[in-house]
């Protein structure tokens, strides 16, 4: 990248490094599920490979990769362990969002360690009270994926009208040392993400550690030194598009597993000794593969649109942002449907704990329910955008 900030960081071999981690992640996957947190060895390997520095500002030692590159790397990580892929997304987004905050906040978070991790719960769960120099807030925030490995948390809060500024939602950066973690993450899938409950009591958040949501969704950020494309990209389109990556990784892994087993698995109560010889199985595999192809095309196209605006120093308009969020939701839905088709074609043994397909099924059913990917809500906000109906049902567009 040139010093003028006209491009993203070089792609390098990060995707290949991510793919090389798959055997290690697979070995520790069962441990992570049992302990309900990613194994220390997995975290260390992801750190060493630079996956948790992908979106840290380059001035602190980060990489500032383009969106497609970091998504492709995350797909590979997810194929080794879905929870690991999820944390690469969530903690990567925490790093990126921190790069949008005032420079003083960035110095606090990354100044001494580029590997510092920032979990986040962006929904404004509680109201803050204005105090001298900042805000005081108490409340509970969940689910906080990656909180067990983080040094900072980014917490959603509601701010009252103050100093001529309107009331509105904001994100506040808080050291994990000032929060308490309550062990609440007992789930069907994504067990190793450690997405527990954070509790804060009378936590002080200085003004420089606050990012106001309304201007941020419109492309107005208080950061000054990070003038590079990574920190010019649209807020919600970036988050929503990145979220496709782990779902795509799960679906691709399911397809490869089902295809690899089809040559020596039969179909019960039929004359087929090999699934791959049955027309019905062939059609199912084709249908699932097409759904995955569509999801991948959407992911790459959306990444190109998001980063294209960042490179050209433009901000996508309201309708385009709504379209990008809808596209992310649709791609995620296609991934989940592909896994459903594959499980039905594979047979009842997919539900066995000894079969890798059951963990993919549990994980994708859990991960695809993230609020930003809610199909009905996204269709409604996109439809309202197409029809020019304002206000919409959320400003998170």
Question: Which features characterize this protein?
Answer:
397 residues; alpha+beta; Butyryl-CoA Dehydrogenase, subunit A, domain 2; Butyryl-CoA Dehydrogenase, subunit A, domain 3; 2 domains; 13 helices
TL;DR?
This protein is an alpha+beta fold. The protein is 47% helix and 13% strand. Helix 4 packs across helix 9 (244-261) and helix 9 (244-261) packs parallel to helix 11 (318-346).
Order of helices and strands: HHHHHHEEEEEEEEHHHHHHH
**How far is it from the N-terminal to the C-terminal residue, by CA?**
29 Å
Count of extended strands: 8
Please give the CATH class of the largest domain: Mainly Beta
Individual helix count: 13
Quickly give the CATH architecture of the largest domain: Beta Barrel
What is the share of helical residues?
Answer: 40-55%
Cross-sheet strand order for the largest sheet: 1-4-5-8
Strand content: 5-15%
Biggest sheet, in brief?
Answer: 4 strands, mixed
Question: Oligomeric form of this entry?
Answer: single chain
What would you call the shape?
globular
Description of the molecule:
The structure is a single chain. The protein is an alpha+beta fold and 397 residues long. The chain folds into 2 domains: 1-214, Butyryl-CoA Dehydrogenase, subunit A, domain 2 (Beta Barrel), CATH 2.40.110; 235-387, Butyryl-CoA Dehydrogenase, subunit A, domain 3, CATH 1.20.140. It has 13 helices and 8 strands. A 4-stranded mixed sheet has the order 1-4-5-8. A hairpin with an 8-residue loop joins strand 4 and strand 5. The longest helix has 34 residues, at 279-312. The radius of gyration is 21 Å and the shape is globular. The mean pLDDT is 96.
């Amino acid at each position: 990248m040139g010093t003028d900030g006209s491009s993203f960081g070089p792609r390098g071999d990060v995707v290949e490094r991510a793919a090389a981690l798959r055997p290690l992640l697979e070995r520790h996957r069962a441990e992570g599920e049992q302990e309900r947190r990613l194994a220390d060895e997995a975290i260390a390997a992801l750190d060493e490979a630079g996956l948790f520095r992908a979106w840290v500002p380059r001035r602190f030692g980060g990489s500032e990769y383009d969106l497609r590159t970091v998504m492709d790397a995350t797909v590979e990580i997810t194929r080794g362990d879905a929870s690991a892929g999820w944390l690469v997304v969530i903690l990567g987004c925490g790093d990126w969002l921190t790069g949008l905050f005032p420079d003083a906040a960035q110095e606090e978070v990354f100044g001494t360690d580029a590997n510092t991790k920032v979990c986040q719960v962006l929904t404004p769960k509680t109201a803050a009270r204005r105090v001298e120099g900042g805000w005081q807030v108490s409340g509970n925030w969940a689910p906080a994926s990656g909180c067990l490995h983080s040094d900072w948390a980014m917490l959603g809060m509601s701010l009252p009208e103050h100093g001529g500024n309107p009331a509105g939602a904001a994100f506040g950066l808080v050291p994990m040392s000032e929060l308490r973690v309550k062990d609440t993450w007992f789930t069907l899938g994504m067990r190793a993400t450690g997405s527990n409950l954070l509790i804060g009591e009378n936590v002080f958040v200085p003004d420089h550690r606050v990012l106001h949501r309304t201007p941020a969704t419109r492309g107005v950020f208080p950061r000054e030194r990070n003038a590079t494309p990574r920190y010019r990209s649209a807020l919600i389109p970036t988050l929503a598009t990145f979220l496709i990556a782990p779902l795509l990784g799960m679906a691709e892994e399911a397809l490869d597993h089902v295809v690899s087993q089809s040559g020596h698995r039969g179909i019960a109560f039929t004359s087929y000794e090999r699934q791959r010889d049955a027309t019905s199985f062939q059609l199912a595999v084709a249908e699932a593969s097409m759904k995955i192809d569509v999801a991948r095309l959407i992911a790459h196209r959306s990444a190109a649109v998001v980063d294209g605006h960042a490179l050209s120093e433009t901000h996508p308009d309201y309708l385009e942002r709504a379209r990008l969020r809808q596209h992310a939701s649709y791609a995620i839905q296609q991934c989940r449907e592909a896994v459903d088709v594959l499980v039905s074609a594979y047979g009842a043994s997919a539900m066995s704990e000894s079969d890798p397909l059951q963990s993919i099924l549990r994980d994708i059913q859990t991960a695809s329910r993230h609020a930003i990917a809610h199909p009905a809500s996204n269709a409604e906000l996109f439809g309202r955008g197409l029809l020019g109906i304002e206000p919409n049902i959320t400003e998170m567009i």
